[in-house]
């Protein structure tokens, strides 16, 4: 699975907003600087997040962006879906819409299993979890496997 720069930047921007949820709105420039994200690219991402109902924008001197709801109620999956679409697709098609024949027939259940596991992790982790540094136990346990940190 590949996480695009757009998805990575969106999650990082949302985490920056989650970390400052008690304060006022954050300007895009401040988010871009804090997370080392190209400003113009971030503006496009924030607009997608606004249209997707994850952030609110406020114009004016005291304007900026803030989360549309509590960080504990926004999953990492929510953020990725708003800027990228489905979490798992094969050639741009969702797994249930695929069909294979012959020896490739069992690829479909494999893609469905992959989608199920990706969903379980990304839907089960909120912005508040990541911003606080406390991942859910099941997710944290996955990082304990010695091979988790090694590229084959």
UniProtKB/TrEMBL annotation:
Pfam families found in the cross-reference section: Rrf2 (PF02082)
Keyword DNA-binding: yes
SUPFAM superfamilies reported for this sequence: Winged helix' DNA-binding domain
Keyword tags: DNA-binding
GO CC annotation: cytosol
GO molecular function, a single term: DNA binding
The keyword Secreted belongs to this UniProt entry's keyword annotation: no
Top-level taxon of origin: Bacteria
Family annotation (Gene3D superfamilies): Winged helix-like DNA-binding domain superfamily/Winged helix DNA-binding domain
InterPro entries: Tscrpt_reg_Rrf2, WH-like_DNA-bd_sf, WH_DNA-bd_sf
NCBIfam families from the UniProt entry: rrf2_super
Protein name per the record: Putative HTH-type transcriptional regulator
Organism: Streptomyces smaragdinus
